[in-house]
Design a protein that fits this description.
The complex is a heterodimer of chains A (478) and B (76).
Chain A (H helix, E strand, L loop, with lengths): L25 H8 L6 E2 L8 E8 L2 E8 L10 H17 L3 E7 L8 H17 L5 E10 L1 H7 L3 E4 L4 E3 L3 H8 L5 H5 L1 H8 L4 E2 L3 H16 L27 H7 L6 E3 L7 E8 L2 E8 L10 H16 L4 E7 L6 H5 L2 H13 L5 E10 H6 L9 E4 L4 E3 L3 H8 L1 H6 L2 H19 L1 H7 L5 E2 L5 H10 L16
Parallel strand pairs in A: 3-4, 4-5, 5-6, 5-7, 6-8, 11-12, 12-13, 13-14, 13-15, 14-16
Antiparallel strand pairs in A: 1-2, 2-3, 9-10, 10-11
Helix pairs in contact in A: 2-3, 3-4, 10-12, 14-16
Chain B lengths: L7 E4 L4 E6 L6 E2 L4 E7 L2 E6 L4 E6 L6 E2 L4 E5 L1
Antiparallel strand pairs in B: 1-8, 2-4, 2-7, 3-6, 4-5, 6-8
The chains are: A alpha/beta (478), B mainly beta (76).
Chain lengths: 478, 76
C-alpha cells in the first residue's frame, strides 16, 4: 500500500484508488468482457451496486451486468437488483445471451427484507429466462448467499482465481459448526471444480475467465451453420487391447474442429465428459464415456452431469454427438445410497425428451442399462453408428456365460474352466448375434469406419428432421 | 512434507485388483505416467500421476485388492 501524500486516503489510512483505475470498477470489467469499443451502458453509473450494458462478443450482441464491488462489497439491494432485471428484460427481448460478472457478498443487510425480496426477483427472472437465452456467470470475487444462487441458476458458471462461492462464509461456518476452514477451501476452485459440481469452468487467471466467457457466449449465442467437415482417423486414439482403459479426450478433440473444444465440468464426475465445440463450424455438444476414470462406468454424479448438459444443449438447439464406450453402471452400496437410481433416471429423462439431432457412436462397447442411457435408439437417437468390432450387449460375453452356464462351468475341472468359458463365450456371441443382430433389430443403424466417422456424423445431423429444432423447456440446474 | 515439495496422494477411485505395478519407490515420474494398472469391471485401468515428482511411497503390490479411497502411491 502506498502512502505518498498525493494519494488520497480514508480516515482508516486506507488508500483510495481513483474510480477509473480501480480494477473492481464494473464499467472496466464490462469493457474487458466485450469486443473493444462496443460497450453501451443500459443503466446509470450510480451507487446501486450493479451496472449493465450491451455490447458485442466476437461480433455477436450480448447483454452483461456486473457487481460493483467498490460499494459495500458489491452487496445487492433493491436498486442493484433492478439493474439485473433490466439486463434480463433486454436479453429476453433481443433473444441474446446474458452474462453476469459477480463479486458480491449477497443481499444488502441495511435494506433488510426489501433486499431479500429484490434478490428473489432476480432468481425469478433467471428462471423465466432459463432455456430461452444462454446465461453465463463469471465469478470474479466472493459470491455469497444470494450472489451464490444467482450464478447457480444459470447455464454455465466460470470461476476466476479469486472467485469464491458459498452460502455462508468461513466466519459463520466456524461459529455455527466449529469447522475451521478458509474461503479457498470452502468455496474456491478446488471444492467447486472437483467436488460440488457448482462450477463448470475453472479459469487459471482473471483474464482467462473473460476469455472462456467470451468463447461460451459465442458457442451458445452464435451457433452458425454446419459446413465442410474433413475426415480423420479417430481410431488411432484407441489402445490395441480391447480391455485396456484409455483417455477419451483426444477422441473428443479430434471429433471437433481444431481448437474449438471447451469442456464443462472437467474434474467433477470425470468418468463422463461434456464438451461444447464446433463441427464443420457449427456448435455441437459432445458427451463421451471416459474409460480412464472408473473404467468409464456411469455413476450417479456422471449421469446427473450428463443429464444437465443434454437439457442445456436441447434448450438452445445444440445438436449432440454421444461417444459410447461404457461397461455399465458402477455397482456398490455407495452408489445406491447416493441415488444412482434417481440421478441415473435424469439422464434417461433428458435424452428421451430431447428434440435436437443427437447421433450416437459406439466405439468399443455398450453394455446393459448404461447402453440404454447413452442415447440409445429406444430413447430416440437420431442415428446410431458403431465402429466395426464394437459390442452392443446386455453384458460382456464371458460374464454372460458365467451366469447362463453356471452349473456346467462348476462341473468342469479348474484347469480347463477358462478355456470352456472362452468357447461358450464365442458360441454365445454367435447366438446373441453381436453387431449384425443389433443392426437387424435396428438398434444400430450403420457400421462406420473410424476414418469416415466425422463426415458421417455431420451428415446425419444436417439431414435429420430434427435439425433446427430446440426443446421447449428450461434448464433447471440438476 | 519436505522443503517446498507438495505430496500428492494417489487414491483408488473404485474397488479393484492390482494387476501390474509399473513403477518402484524412488522412481521419478512425470504427469500422465502410469504408476500401476488396476483390474476392475473386466478392464485394465491405468492409474496415472497427476504431477511431476518422485514416487515417495508405494502402498500396493500386484494381486492386492484396493477399496475406493485407498492410497496407492504418494508422489513428491
Amino acid at each position: 500500500m502506498t502512502t505518498t501524500p498525493t494519494v488520497p486516503t480514508t480516515a482508516a489510512g486506507k488508500t483510495v484508488i481513483p474510480r477509473d483505475e480501480d480494477p473492481r470498477n464494473p464499467r472496466l470489467r464490462l469493457e474487458q468482457l466485450f469486443d473493444p469499443g462496443t460497450l453501451e451502458l443500459i443503466t446509470a453509473e450510480d451507487d446501486s451496486g450493479m451496472l449493465a450494458g450491451i455490447g458485442r462478443i466476437e461480433g455477436a450482441a450480448s447483454v452483461a451486468f456486473c457487481s460493483d464491488a467498490t460499494i459495500q462489497g458489491g452487496a445487492m439491494g433493491q436498486a442493484g437488483c433492478a439493474v439485473v432485471l433490466t439486463a434480463y428484460e433486454r436479453a429476453l427481448a433481443d433473444g441474446i445471451p446474458v452474462l453476469g460478472l459477480w463479486h458480491s457478498g449477497g443481499a444488502r443487510l441495511r435494506e433488510g427484507v426489501v433486499s431479500l425480496h429484490a434478490v428473489g426477483e432476480v432468481f425469478a427472472i433467471m428462471t423465466r429466462a432459463s432455456g430461452k437465452v444462454p446465461q453465463i456467470s463469471v465469478v470474479l470475487g466472493p459470491a455469497a448467499g444470494g450472489a451464490a444462487y444467482g450464478p447457480a441458476l444459470t447455464d454455465v458458471v466460470i470461476l476466476g482465481p479469486e472467485g469464491r462461492v458459498f452460502v455462508t462464509g468461513p466466519d459463520v461456518v466456524r461459529s455455527v459448526t466449529g469447522e475451521d476452514v478458509d474461503s479457498l477451501r470452502l468455496g474456491g476452485p478446488e471444492p467447486h471444480g472437483r467436488r460440488s459440481g457448482v462450477v463448470h469452468v475453472v479459469a487459471e487467471t482473471q483474464d482467462d475467465a473473460y476469455v472462456e466467457a467470451r468463447r461460451l457466449a459465442a458457442l451458445l449465442g452464435d451457433q452458425r451453420d454446419l459446413g465442410e467437415v474433413e475426415d480423420r482417423d479417430l481410431s488411432s486414439y484407441l489402445p490395441d487391447s480391447p480391455k485396456r482403459a484409455y483417455d477419451v479426450h483426444p477422441i473428443v478433440e479430434a471429433m471437433l474442429d481444431e481448437g474449438s473444444s471447451l469442456e464443462l465440468h472437467p474434474k467433477w464426475a470425470p468418468n463422463v465428459t461434456t464438451t461444447l465445440g464446433r463441427l464443420g463450424g457449427r456448435t455441437v455438444g459432445v458427451i463421451a464415456n471416459n474409460p480412464l476414470r472408473l473404467g468409464g462406468c456411469l455413476d450417479s454424479a456422471s449421469a446427473e452431469k450428463a443429464a444437465r448438459f443434454v437439457r442445456m444443449c436441447d434448450a438452445f438447439g445444440v445438436p449432440m454427438v454421444v461417444i459410447v464406450d461404457v461397461p455399465g453402471y458402477l455397482p456398490g452400496v455407495g452408489q445406491e445410497w447416493d441415488g444412482v437410481v434417481r440421478r441415473g433416471a435424469k439422464l434417461l429423462h433428458a435424452f428421451a425428451e430431447c428434440t435436437v439431432p443427437r447421433v450416437t457412436l459406439v466405439t468399443r462397447k455398450a453394455y446393459g442399462g448404461a447402453y440404454i442411457a447413452m442415447n440409445s435408439r429406444s430413447l430416440g437417437a437420431t442415428r446410431v453408428f458403431a465402429w466395426p468390432g464394437a459390442e452392443v450387449a446386455v453384458m460382456g460375453a464371458v460374464a454372460a456365460v458365467r451366469i447362463l452356464h453356471r452349473r456346467r462351468l462348476a462341473e468342469v475341472a479348474d484347469d480347463v474352466r477358462g478355456q470352456v468359458e472362452q468357447e461358450l463365450a464365442v458360441e454365445h456371441g454367435q447366438l446373441a448375434g453381436g453387431l449384425s443382430r443389433a443392426q437387424e433389430i435396428g438398434v444400430v443403424d450403420e457400421l462406420v469406419e473410424p476414418t469416415r466417422t466425422r463426415s458421417a456424423i455431420a451428415r446425419a445431423i444436417v439431414t435429420s428432421a430434427e435439425y433446427g429444432r430446440r426443446g421447449q423447456h428450461g434448464n433447471i440446474p440438476l | 512434507m519436505r522443503g517446498v515439495s507438495v505430496a500428492e496422494e494417489i487414491r483408488a477411485e473404485m474397488v479393484a485388483n492390482v494387476w501390474k505395478v509399473v513403477v518402484a519407490q524412488g522412481d521419478s515420474v512425470e504427469s500422465g505416467d502410469t504408476l500401476v494398472i488396476l483390474e476392475s469391471m473386466k478392464m485394465e485401468i491405468p492409474v496415472m500421476s497427476e504431477s511431476d515428482g518422485t514416487v515417495a511411497a508405494l502402498h500396493v503390490s500386484e494381486g492386492d485388492v484396493v477399496q475406493e479411497g485407498d492410497i496407492i502411491a504418494v508422489i513428491e
